[in-house]
Design goal:
single chain, alpha/beta, Nucleotidyltransferase, domain 5, two-stranded antiparallel sheet
Length: 261
């Protein structure tokens, strides 16, 4: 749960991202409702069709993360009914948890089905649930791979270790966090990953991913005294300064000073 809470806090800090992913999911839900009410999917020729699509109109929904704009479908000659606007608040927390789960390991189809059924929508096929899970994972993946557009002057890198339940056992996992200070002075979390270990190869891979996303302008990197981070910095950012984080520096000093002093 500590890992989930950490990732949840990180994602919620990216308010626009959360709103975008909620919008994506709810539009998919209305697409399912539309298929049920018309008797056919988009462009499908079916003898079961009972109505035709008639475009979409924008409709605002208030969430805990601010207002979002949804694309509410229309049906030719009859009203389109959706449960979203009256039942969304019941499943908001479950949906955020599904997004967090997707960030860490990919969302489960069981969780998606539970959310949909909690909204009162029944009879969803396994293929449809699988498609929705895939779409949500894809939305999270786009966020993880988003371009870094502003120059980043400083990088702060660190890892925290938490006990995680993994296949029936509690094991220690490293939560790797990279924060950047941009040229305009703003701080931005650039990456957060759960790993089995913290070593040079993993940090180097993380740094290279950031560079592929457009990371540039780095002048100095701060971290604890981990040798793997230092080695990865030298390989990924030649010519960039490294220094020990002040907090970790003070802790290292205090470990070598007698308590009486």
């Amino acid at each position: 749960m500590e890992v989930l809470d950490l990732v949840r806090d990180y994602l919620i800090d990216q308010d626009e991202t959360i709103k975008k992913l909620i919008t994506l999911f709810l539009n998919l839900v209305m697409e399912i409702e539309l298929e049920q009410q018309t008797g056919a999917s988009r462009y499908e020729h079916s003898k079961n069709r009972i109505a035709h699509r008639n475009g979409k109109r924008r409709r605002s929904l208030k969430t805990k993360h601010g207002n979002i704009e949804l694309e509410k479908p229309e049906i030719r000659g009859k009203p389109f009914h959706t449960v979203i606007f009256e039942r969304y608040s019941r499943v908001e927390r479950s949906l955020i948890n599904a997004i967090v789960e997707s960030y860490i390991q990919g969302v489960s189809t069981r969780r998606i089905r539970t959310i949909i059924e909690s909204m009162g929508i029944e009879g969803i096929s396994a293929d449809t649930v699988s498609r929705m899970a895939h779409e949500l994972d894809q939305g999270v993946r786009e966020f993880l791979e988003r371009p870094i557009e502003e120059p980043v002057i400083y990088l702060n890198v660190d890892a925290v270790y938490l006990k995680v339940r993994d296949h029936g056992r509690y094991v220690s996992k490293a939560i790797l966090i990279i924060a950047g200070i941009r040229a305009d002075g703003l701080r931005e979390i650039l990456g957060l990953k759960v790993a089995d270990r913290e070593d040079e190869s993993f940090w180097l891979s993380l740094f290279e991913d950031l560079k592929e996303r457009g990371l540039k302008g780095v002048q100095m990197i701060t971290s604890d005294g981990h040798k793997g981070i230092q080695a990865a910095v030298m390989k990924a950012f030649p010519g960039t300064s490294w220094q020990m984080c002040l907090i970790h520096f003070l802790r290292a000093i205090l470990r070598n000073i007698p308590v009486k002093s």
